Recover the amino acids of this structure.
């Protein structure tokens, strides 16, 4: 992951601030404060999203117009859309947390408050802390931090079906939906799909996580560390669960909350895989990408795409590998 040289004297950048006004932490006041703060040093245009996919189109247009940085103010779904609009271009993505969990923003080292994060972002822009990073890809669409196949995708579907509560009680709602899905909405008594790797290794799995970064998510302020080997400058980690016994799943969750990862568990197939994987099934299965449910499919092609996106990272971001820490 290569960083751009730091300029001796930073010049004003052309920014597009893409705002999802429906995100749980986005308010009219925060939009005004953030735009004013960014406009002190840079040329800022604001655009609000109005429908699914709108952020991607705004980002694509900004890249075509020569915008230097697109700032995504919203939840992880908004960040995902902007990343897909910018992937392969020379326009950088910057993130401000505006959702309920903000996994990606917190993973790269931002505070979980959009106004506080704006100060960190301004420091990063001043230092030109912009790095070319890799993304995951599933069926041709990019993801920033993970794809969930099976159980957690079914949980996310249940959470989204109660979207009115998500704004006010996201973490309790997630826990409730996880329990409700386990007992009422997911068959955890037999393997759901087959995972195949380029070296012909094969796993019959009940549930699969594919991680581009770590942690997988946050429960309150506690990270759920399932794949410590994942990172923006490293290959994907593919975790296939070969058992859905409740005692084993709870044990894995406990290890992840303590920061121990799940790679040593016998009920888990843990692979660091630069070439990705193929997931197939005779029956449709649900999947989610960066926390957004995307329906059901019978085939998913997962791969890692290195050096595909310019990303503004906080100075000293934990997302940087050791080789980049001093840049």
């Amino acid at each position: 992951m290569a960083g751009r040289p730091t300029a001796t004297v930073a010049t004003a950048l052309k920014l597009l601030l893409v705002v999802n006004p429906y995100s749980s932490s986005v308010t009219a006041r925060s939009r005004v404060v953030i735009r004013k703060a960014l406009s002190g040093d840079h040329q800022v245009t604001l655009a609000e999203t109005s429908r699914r996919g709108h952020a991607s189109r705004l980002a694509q247009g900004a890249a075509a117009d020569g915008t230097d940085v697109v700032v995504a103010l919203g939840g992880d779904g908004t960040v995902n859309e902007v990343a897909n609009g910018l992937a392969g271009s020379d326009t950088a993505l910057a993130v401000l947390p505006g959702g309920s969990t903000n996994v990606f923003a917190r993973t790269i080292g931002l505070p979980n408050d959009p106004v506080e994060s704006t100060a960190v972002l301004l420091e990063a822009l001043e230092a030109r802390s912009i790095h070319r990073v890799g993304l995951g890809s599933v069926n041709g669409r990019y993801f920033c931090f993970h794809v969930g196949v099976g159980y957690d995708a079914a949980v996310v579907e249940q959470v989204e079906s109660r979207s009115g509560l998500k704004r006010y009680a996201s973490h309790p709602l997630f826990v409730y939906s996880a329990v409700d899905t386990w007992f009422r909405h997911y068959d955890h008594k037999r393997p759901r799909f087959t995972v195949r790797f380029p070296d012909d290794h094969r796993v019959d799995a009940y549930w699969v996580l594919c991680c581009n970064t770590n942690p997988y998510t946050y429960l309150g302020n506690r990270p759920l560390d399932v794949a410590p080997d994942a990172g923006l400058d490293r290959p994907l980690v593919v975790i296939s669960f070969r058992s859905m016994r409740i005692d084993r799943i709870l044990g894995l969750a406990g290890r992840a909350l303590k920061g121990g990862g799940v790679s040593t568990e016998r009920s888990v197939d843990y692979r660091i895989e630069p070439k990705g994987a193929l997931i197939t099934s005779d029956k449709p299965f649900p999947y989610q990408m960066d926390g957004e449910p995307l329906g059901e499919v019978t085939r998913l092609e997962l791969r890692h795409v290195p050096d595909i996106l310019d990303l503004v990272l906080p100075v000293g971001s934990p997302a940087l590998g050791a080789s980049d820490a001093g840049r």
Remarks:
- The domain at 14-134+307-324 is CATH 3.40.50.10330 (Rossmann fold).
- The radius of gyration is 19 Å.
- Confidence is low (pLDDT under 50) at residues 5-9, 322-327.
- The chain has nine helices and 16 strands.
